[in-house]
Amino acid sequence: DWTMATFRQEAIARIREQVGTGKVLCGLSGGVDSAVAAVLIHEAIGDQLTCVFVDHGLLRLGEAERVVQLFRDAYNIPLVHVEAQDLFLKELSGVTDPEAKRKTIGRLFIDVFEAEARKLAAQDGKPVEFLAQGTLYPDVIESVSLTGGPSVTIKSHHNVGGLPERMNMKLVEPLRDLFKDEVRKLGRELGMPEIFVGRHPFPGPGLAIRCPGEITAEKLDILRHADAVYLEEIRRAGLYDDIWQAFAVLLPVRTVGVMGDGRTYDYVLALRAVTSVDGMTADFYPFDMGFLGRVATRIINEVKGINRVTYDVTSKPPGTIEWE
Ligand code: XMP
């Protein structure tokens, strides 16, 4: 792609110019944006870049392993894998409000990051001057206003806001002018594997905002398992690339069911899938009923703790893509 080849060269020149010989820290979320930003920056400045992957225990099944493998093994990019699952779960216990979840997660990210930046600075006594983020154009505008009217914050999309000021760091945001489809093109231009580049967006707060109400380790396990079955069926049906985002939401509601000749009283799972070009508006995906029925049967048979499955047919607006 000619445009992306040019963008790549220009972005690399801009990064070198901004960073000079300074050290850069980049937070990997497991998503496409931060991964593409990291690979681009690594191409520009090599091992002046260190990536930090904070594993908050709110990722999908097998995601953490995939991220670590891609960066360490495929790209040989220095990567610190921080296992912070227990910390996040402990601090999130009793937190039920969606924005409170985001704030708690954002604050912990900053704490963990700050500690890693200090360690990195201590290695040779040189401070980390730059923080890299995979901020996209829609991130920049959506946190400003979604209604076009007076500025209302619908959801506070944290990247690592707050850290730069506290640590006296400057931001490196090479994707700030791009939309998601352009980031994917750039990722392909950089030779990143399709399985990574073509992946659906995944929110920073992860499964915490797909578990309305209180988050527990047990609920997260149930959700991870059900979500994996749902995505496996979507891939198997060849629908993955037609969908912008698909995921499961574990509702804090139990309903009565019957299994064999016994009564069950288990959680309800909601399935969500939408089409979109940039996440700002979205339509629910029109699966056929046969597909939905198959997914529901598999989930109820295979995932202990769920006895009812529903499909969300709300578009955005008036709904948002995530439930929280
Ligand atoms: P909504 O739910 O606002 O989602 O329609 C639009 C897009 O943003 C993602 N999203 C988030 N991403 N931090 C993120 O990094 C967040 O707090 C957050 N909330 C929503 C969502 O997955 C969708 O792609």
TrEMBL record:
It catalyses: XMP + L-glutamine + ATP + H2O = GMP + L-glutamate + AMP + diphosphate + 2 H(+). Pathway: Purine metabolism; GMP biosynthesis; GMP from XMP (L-Gln route): step 1/1. It is an enzyme of class 6 (ligase). One of its GO terms (molecular function) is GMP synthase (glutamine-hydrolyzing) activity. Its EC number is 6.3.5.2. ATP binds at S29, G30, G31, V32, D33, S34, A35. Keywords: ATP-binding, Glutamine amidotransferase, GMP biosynthesis, Ligase, Nucleotide-binding, Purine biosynthesis. Residues 2-199 form the GMPS ATP-PPase domain. The keyword ATP-binding applies. Signal peptide: none annotated. Homodimer. Catalyzes the synthesis of GMP from XMP. This is GMP synthase [glutamine-hydrolyzing]. It comes from Pseudochelatococcus lubricantis. The chain holds residues 201 to 524 of 524 of the full protein.
